[in-house]
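Thread: Newbie trying to understand structure tokens

Hi all, I'm a second-year student working on a class project, and my supervisor (Dr. K.) asked me to get a predicted structure for one chain before our next meeting. I've only ever worked with sequences, so writing a 3D structure as a token string is new to me. If someone could post the tokens and maybe explain what I'm looking at, I'd be very grateful. Here's the chain:
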Amino acid sequence: MRLFIEPTEPLLFRRTGKSFDAGESGYADTLFPPTPETMQGAIRAAIATHWDRTKTLVEVFQQQELVDLIGDRSSYGRFRITGIALGRRRKDGKIERLFTPPSHLLEVKGEDNKNWLIRLRPKPPKEEGIHTDLPESMQLVYPGENIEGKLESIGGWLTEQGLLKALRPGEVPTNEEMVSNHEIFEYESRLGIGMNNATKTTREGLLYQVRMVRMKHDKNFDYGFVVDISLAQSSGSGEAITSPAMSLDDDQTQKLLRLPDQGWVTLGGERRAAHFEVLKSSDAIQRGDIEQAQRGNLLYLATPAAFKGGWRPEQWSASLTNPIAAAINRYQSIGGWSLRPGDSGGENKSMRRCVPAGSIYFFDKSVTVTQPLTDYGWQIGYGIAYAGEW
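---
Reply by user tm_fold:
Sure, no problem. This is what the structure looks like when written as tokens:
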């Protein structure tokens, strides 16, 4: 079941690993896009809210039927997130997904503002005097041609068709298939000050600033998030959903979750309002299906992945061999907040250094993507991976 979540207010996503304590730090930055932790919490809360409007959330979560479906504070039940992406709705109502560009695709800044895209490829190091801390079986990655100019990450986002081209040899996304950040959102600074609730006066030394994100709505597109959710066939399923046969169909899923065709959800810090809509297959632009990219000699991470082995999983699955090279940007710190029922208190979740979305793993033989590539959070959208060719 696919949801389109469209924010109606500025958003704040705090899971950056940087402290923001009253009197100690006066600036709070925001992450964008939101992490799988944020999206799963918002969606599961929305499901619980719409489950039985005559009961409180505490009473709702005392119903075993709901706990079996979406879990509780210690489990995820049958709930699975199988896709997370930015999205935009065209004025004809069609939804198009947007993805982080793969990290092996770079832009060359040439003279006279002539720019073009090139790929990095594995290459055994032959030059004398090169020393790295890579395992002996690993190769470095180089441009496939001699380059005169500055190499930079292309930034922004790719449409689904653009991503399919980026994951194929000999093809590159067109300008129409690349979307810049400023087309999607803009940052807004908000100033605040701590208050003494008893006296209704300001507190000295507690002036702070928060950077928020406002997603854009223009004459061509409305921007938001596209999330695919599924229910495993049974509550005892300990495997990721890798085929339609392992999950219920969309109509069954929506009926069991008692989710209306549209409604409201709170998203991110300060519980900002967003509108969600359950999409039908006719709502999507049918120009490519990245989910069908399951076999190749390159693996692309569409969402962050948390590994016990740092940049790689503790154990490669049977369908994957050890990679011969990798193109990975700086790690992304992702944590969370575990809310205590009954009040606004709680505690921090563990902070994890994750391999960011867009990371690429190269293989010297064909591999098959059969499950999310992550050691943590495969149920909620970590490590969603697609295959390609280099």
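A couple of things are worth pointing out once you decode it. Residues 321 and 390 are 16 Å apart (CA to CA). The first strand starts at residue 2 and ends at 7. Feel free to ask follow-ups in this thread.
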